[in-house]
Amino acid sequence: QKEVEQNSGPLSVPEGAIASLNCTYSDRGSQSFFWYRQYSGKSPELIMSIYSNGDKEDGRFTAQLNKASQYVSLLIRDSQPSDSATYLCAVNPTTGNQFYFGTGTSLTVIP
Amino acid sequence: NAGVTQTPKFRILKIGQSMTLQCTQDMNHNYMYWYRQDPGMGLKLIYYSVGAGITDKGEVPNGYNVSRSTTEDFPLRLELAAPSQTSVYFCASSYGPPDGASYNEQFFGPGTRLTVL
Q: What are phi and psi of B40, to 5 degrees?
């Protein structure tokens, strides 16, 4: 079983604050990691992917990967109400052709 | 360029009925996937395909069948519907495997909401 764990939340932050979302995974050999955003009733859309240890920044989003501790996180700076959604972590294990999703963290940004 | 399209959007089945969920992509992607998402849960992979004529099981394949006769189409077949198959089904496609490269991003269709009563 390739386990991906996320805190289901809900997580509430005020507008303009930093939202921090965390994900841990069980397969130590996992290669690549993804954060998806899913609005209620919609399909997931990719926000970030990361496969090297450290930070990767894209606009207000920063993904952080620590393979030794087996966790990946997503920081959202200057949170906006439009960021209110469920954030899904996905991990590509050593087998390569598929990946496994966590259950998602619900984020609400309060105006 | 329509991306990934799925039909139908909604469907109600009775126990024991059969149906096919359609998925088509127009991006010339090699990889295609079927996921199901139960309420409040993440996505579980049912089946995937790395090219026409090649399919493989994911985490939860029982009760489903797939085929991939063309690059564009990847239908999912439910033979004997059961209440446990009530879920939202997403089809996705990508050029290559999910290795983190930007050109291998998975694109999702809008989903099919299936209820089995």
A: 70, 15
